[in-house]
Design a protein that fits this description.
This is Membrane protein involved in the export of O-antigen and teichoic acid. The protein has 515 residues and is mainly α. The chain is built from 20 helices and no strands.
Length: 515
Amino acid sequence: MSSKPVAVHRIFSGSVWGILAKILDAAAKFVTIPLLVGYYGKADYGLIALAFSLNAYLRLMDLGMNVGSVRFFSMWEAKSDWENIGKASRSSIIFYGTIGLINALIFMFMANYGQFFFNLKPDQIPTYRIMMYILSASTVLNWLSNVIIQLLSAKDELGYVNRVTVVSSVLNFLVAIAAIQFKWSLPVYFLFYTISTLVPIPLNILKLRVFPIPLGQLLTPKWDGKIFREIIGYSSAIFLMGLFQLTANELRPILLAKFASGIDVLTDYRVIQTIAMLIISFGTIFLQVLLPSASKVYQEGNHPKMEKMVFTATRFISIFLSFIVFLLVLNSEAILLLYMGKDYLHLAVWLNIWLLTVLLNMHNTPVASLVLSSGKTRFLIYSSATACILSLPITIILAPTLNVGAAVIGYLAYMLIQIGFFYIYYIPKVLKLDSKKIFLSAFSPSVLGAVIAFAVAFGLEKWIEMPVGILGMIIRSAIFTTVFAAFHFLFIIKSADIEFLRTKLLKRKVSNEQE
């Protein structure tokens, strides 16, 4: 049997398990956040949100190596070039180990001087300091784990990686429940939460046996300057792009901690972020799955194949994301009411804007995967820098009055600028694809179907008095789903699309039987 069907199966499996892992992770956070806020209080839970934001922002120290390594590992894996994979992997161990140590020192610095940067209350400083020390102790292992995931991604083993992530999500949930049940202090909860995030590392290491070379040739530190320069040369452009992207995205809550009315605003931010991150994480999964395949397609230089991949992937991703986003927007007030209580209903408008912004951004994932594979990323640096510089002041200016809304509007501004650059320059000039066709034929039809379904469900709710609570959500969702599905089966999804999905599912079944 050829390897191609197995690769298709693994790509499909990676997407399915990735989505499942993100759903479970979001569900765990969805359940635990109101419990933890209720137990520790809104202000102290804001410390957790601040710790997460600082940790996320420091991911920029990756220098773009995550994307660059997957690209090169995938190309070498396609050629069975195990020697280069081993050299690059062992060099990456040294690189990420060094970054981890620097990261640890930064957390120690923030532990001792954080009170000068954020609106912390005096009684919060000791707890904040311990949390920074915990992050400092764990960060080296977290950074080193990147190499393992990069290798497994190149081998199309994201299905396994995401299955292991499910284990971590379950442990996160159990730790939160234990913290409330046994009345743990906030530092004790944060310690066990951090430990639970490290559990996937040894399990992923065991899976590296899929490579036909010993683990020592993959993970034993050994520097190879020549091959590392090859990766970092490509990755440096990704880093500069990522620097501005991470600054625009992850600096927003940190700016809120500095300029908003108080640290408790970060709890509001964390509440709506948890819901929005479910959609954002789908986009991350799609990029992880598409990047290795896009690298190989781009290397072939087959333009019709590239065009077909982008158009087909954009259509299916847009259908999926439009359904999820508009369903959440339709039920946003009910979700917040059930989730956190009536005191959080004012967040619905900001949640809706954030969700729609994510939809606009995530539909572009197939194009982004090809752009990253092309290596022609210089203009992405300019667009990211422009969007970042223009959007961050919006958050700073609006933070004292709009609080969490300032971060949402800043994010919207950033994404509008970025998407504009993609459609005006990158799609037609770099990829030589039809921007109008992608936007009007691959993305917009599903959005139109979602808008119609939303209008019908919303209109019926106003015309017929529906029950409140979960029953009302079920009825609204059922109406929306029915109209959305009818529209798509009548006007968008063709018999060829159904046959395409049926073929992929059949190949997956055959691959399972063969394996």
